[in-house]
Amino acid sequence: MSVPAELFSYRKFWAHRFGPAPFLPMSQEEMGELGWDSCDIILVTGDAYVDHASFGMAIVGRLLEAQGFRVGIISQPDWTSTADFKKLGKPNLFFGVSAGNMDSMVNRYTSDRKIRSDDAYTPGGVAGKRPDRSVLVYSQRCQEAYKNVPVIIGGIEASLRRIAHYDYWSDLVRRSVLMDSKADLLVFGNGERQIVEIAHRLSRGEKPEQLTEIRGTAFLRNHIPEGFSVIDSTTIDEPGSEPATKTNPYLYVPGKDSASAADKASGSNLPVQVESPGNESREASGSVYQHPPKVDRAHTVIRLPSFEAVKDDPVLYAHASRVLHLETNPGNARALVQKHGDRELWLNPPAIPLQTQEMDAIYELPFARVPHPSYGDQKIPAFEMIQHSVTIMRGCFGGCTFCSITEHEGRIIQNRSEKSVLREIEKIRDTSKSFSGYISDLGGPTANMYRLACKSREIEAACRRPSCVYPDVCSNLQTDHSSLVNLYRKAREIPGIKKILIASGVRYDIAVKSPEWIKELATHHVGGYLKIAPEHTQEGPLTKMMKPGIGAYDRFKELFDRYSKQAGKEQYLIPYFIAAHPGTTDQDMLDLALWLKANGFRADQVQAFLPSPMATATAMYHSGKNPLRKVTRTSENVSIPRGLTVRRLHKAFLRYHDANNWPILREALRKMGRGDLIGNGKHQLIPAWQPRGTGESEGHRTPHRKSRPASGGVNFRTQHTGLPPGPAMPSARKKKPGNR
Predict the structure, then answer these.
(1) How far apart are CA 39 and CA 93, in angstroms?
(2) pLDDT, tens digit, for every residue of 337-386?
(3) At what angle are helices 586-598 and 643-654 packed, to 10 degrees?
């Protein structure tokens, strides 16, 4: 793994003499006030411009400013013409285009493909201020506005659509967004390293077509350059007949020399693999870590099946998804190539994770920490939720198949220093007019992965596991939460801080390895309710999600309840569940509903699985195959809840207490042969009677009776949007935006 240039080591561009702007300009008037005659770089975003480190364009803009470039922002432009794309003039170097903090299709449409009524990243929460497939539209308008100006695309939408991908909203496999946008380069993942190098090299006169070796970027070529070894992906994971001995290319577990000649030649490092009685892959016992065979990874590229092949063959699509996820570790990833017509889509290996000092410097850039003044008094819901929160880390090694965090940010945790986090808390206290002493979150993609890492850098660099915690917590993972406990304690001691809440999602399977952290959390950092995401209770869907069994939740709950009681606090867990995930049957949802009732839970809002681009679960949804295991024509078929009827049923099971769902549940229970669960008994799921004015017509209505709450139940909102956390109190919960 090559050592990249330190992020702030570049010689600053000449315009650094202008110094930092109070806000990055959004108009010619602001540029004039700063003494600028032009912008070097113009960033186009689908979000409102909030100068806060939780907003991607603010981070990119302030980072480029710190490199000496003059950066302007075009926020939520009118895409029906080029007028808004010309309002800052022609950029000297390039346009940087992003849909915003969310994929524009996820932002606008629900999992049932209905149009959302609001947009948390828009002033006033107004919907409709960005186009569908924003990256494509914005890129085309930039090119129309100023020909021959390079266009660099990035952000979550471009990142997760970097190869041929299944698009849920059109129910088609679409080409890479780079092809359709006609952009010059695509930046995937967290883009700081890439965008800084791109900016400096373009400023020195290089052309976009010369920038072919930057990690974390994708571009188009006409042919494979000389000197590269091309490996057909099917030699790594052949999508043919099921072999007698199954192997898993996600793991490098040396032991017996059993890899095929083709595997050895490709340098794919296939492990010895055995099957357990539970049909779950396990590492061969007795293995000792050894170095993988030496290969020239810098001059090796893996050829994925072409766009034309995967769009018509779901099995090949699942195979390509599996191989792509194999090549995501910056320590051992090779370049990927996928033919689109007569062009070669080339994906370099992911960028090297940021070091702590680089993370500190990024988050301590001179953000105003408020929305741009042009919005006046209009509220931006996303900002209202995060303005007093502090990001302490990036990345996630959980690998949940429905989640895009790992695909985008990677599974190697990138941490800020304790001192940097404490300085930001003090800055919030000293500068925010609305601060009342409460920090809403210290977290990131998860609440409790801060400073957790592999015990060996060598093992980490060679590992191909998609998760460090599934099917069990890896023995090489360091799970000591003491650094996080110390951070909490020092943060609480800062004068003027009344309370620090933890709103990011808790990874409870590693939390139980550190009871001290759970005690600290329950004693000091919960506002009555703590969100937690078991997602399901049944093994079938959990194995397809790569989530731990419900037993891990039970162990966490036991510790949380114990420490809450010791602290003299009445506190509750708010579990999130997901409906209609691949691998989920009607029986699974019934069992989950019975678990909810037995535990006194009543969810007042739920969400069905939404197949986001590039996620492993999306490959399951599209192909009906399981890419967590070897994909073949005859390999495991996954049960897929498709269609509005079954998705509504699965959501209805989560809201078994809602009288409007009783008719559909009665019908389903009878078809399943579980009519015994219909009645008024304590152990029955739903009553036989129907309150007047609820449910669908069944030919007659029974006399009106009031619905009664379950005895001892806690009424809560268990909303799974795949997004970062919102406020802690369930009565005030709102959907917090983000990308997952």
Answers:
(1) 8
(2) 999 999 999 999 999 999 999 999 999 999 999 999 999 999 999 999 99
(3) 20
Residues in the chain: 740
Residues 571, 526: Cα–Cα separation, whole Å:
8
CA angle 228, 191, 57 (to 5 degrees): 150
| DSSP letter (8 states) at residue 586 | H
d(CA 84, CA 78): 6
471: preceding bond cis by omega (within 30 degrees): yes
The pLDDT tens digits for 660-709 are 999 999 999 999 999 999 999 989 999 999 999 898 643 333 333 333 33
Determine the Cα–Cα distance for residues 163 and 309; give it in Å rounded to an integer: 13
For residues 413 and 415, what is the distance between their CA atoms, to the nearest angstrom?
6
Indicate the DSSP class of residue 443.
E
Note whether 728 and 503 are within 8 A (CB).
yes
pTM of the model: 0.87
The β-bridge partners of 126 are: 118
- The predicted-structure confidence for 37-68, as pLDDT tens digits, reads as follows 999 999 999 999 999 999 999 999 999 999 99
All domains in the chain, ordered by first residue: 14-215 (3.40.50.2300), 229-320 (no CATH)
Distance, CA of 38 to CA of 299 (rounded, Å): 40
DSSP 583: T
